[in-house]
Amino acid sequence: xTESLLDYTLxxxxxxxxxxxxxxxxxxxxxMLEQDIAISNIALDLIGQSRNFYQYAAKIINSDxxxxxxxxxxxxxxxxxxxxxxxxxxRDANEFKNLLIAELPNGDWAKTILKLFFFSTYQxxxxxxxxxxxxxxxxxxAEKSLKEVTYxxxxxxxWVIRLGDGTEESNGRIKLALEELWPYTGEMFEPAAYEVIxxxxxxxxxxxxxxxxxxxxxxxxxxxxxxxxxxxxxxxxQTGGKKGIHTEHLGFILAEMQFLQRAYPGCKW
Amino acid sequence: MIHTKQNIIVDEILQLxxxxxxxxxPVLSVIDLxxxxxxxxxxxxxxxxxxxxxxxxxAMDMIAMNIRMxxxxxxxxKIKITQQLSPAWTTDWMTKNGKQKLRSYxxxxxxxxxxDKKYLEDEIKVQCPQCHSFNTKLLSQFxxxxxxxxxxxxxxxxxxxxxxxx
Lengths: 269, 166
Prior knowledge:
Shape of chain A: globular
Radius of gyration of chain B: 18 Å
Structural class of chain B: alpha/beta
Helix content of chain B: 25-40%
Largest sheet of chain A: none
Helix content of chain A: 55-70%
Order of helices and strands of chain B: HHEEHEHEHEEE
Strand content of chain B: 15-25%
Distance between the termini of chain A: 37 Å
Distance between the termini of chain B: 32 Å
Oligomer: heterodimer
Largest sheet of chain B: 4 strands, mixed
Number of strands of chain A: 0
Number of strands of chain B: 7
């Protein structure tokens, strides 16, 4: 179980870190001051969540004596114990288990908003269930995160409506974003092997069961936004992120995010 | 309460923590905020349990350091600060005194109790800390720190921070 619990925890940590890091790219570039602050706050919440998950993952690694010697699972050479930092800064792209939608480039404001709306709505229903995890720490992180994600859903829903039901320009942009992002929504509800085990152990959430709630919420917001919900017929969906098979975009994020620790290992300030 | 040596020490520590402030909102102590969850004393080691207001709150590390400093300065040596996530922090734990201090500082304190869902989901009436009017509007759900939203008073026109009910 430890093996899959670790993968499961890293998957959750990577989701929040990569999404949070992406959103932080807007800091200083938001369309207006209040929204710049809002999106930076959301980025901060997500990175905070990821820290909680990484700290727990590091604890799992360090408490397993067999594992400590394994370089694959205790990344970084001669760095001793795994920490939240070694896990965020010293793993390569194929070790990251985040959803592909989290790593996609921000594009314009419409694309960022829609991406966040899809992701936050997923997290909202996900954390609601993770609270009942038999793993006390995962349950505690879920309880804490859910309160924050509630605000993210609310904020991004309002923006989806504003853009969809806005001007011809904003409507056109969010429609384009929808076309681009839709094929990345299916992965959220397709469990990876470690998720299947986590469900069996009553540690994890059965993501395939979240689909109905997610669809209902998205359809409802789309109706207000005068957007057509595309999911009636089945579309081919992109997958792979949860298993470490990523788009080319993740490498660029890591190159920027990990640069300092790669160039100056163990550097502190 | 029985005045054993242990709970005299706990009282003393609680007293000291009254002077440890939130670096972002310096009028509030960690006691006012309700983030001190427990104090344990075991063979001379003091363990203080704190809970973060928001997962990403950057003030937490500084708060933990300030608690340690305050205890060290007062002669306590073995100190452990443990972060506890559950039960998750809520504004319901903020003291009445804390809410009063916030208001005089110019930040509207959280309205209502979080167990009442409508305070999280619907529009609520927030009172302007300057002119006390309830005729205010939400400018942004996110403010200068994770714990605040931005409001404006329609009567005196002053923008102000509102400490979110959470």
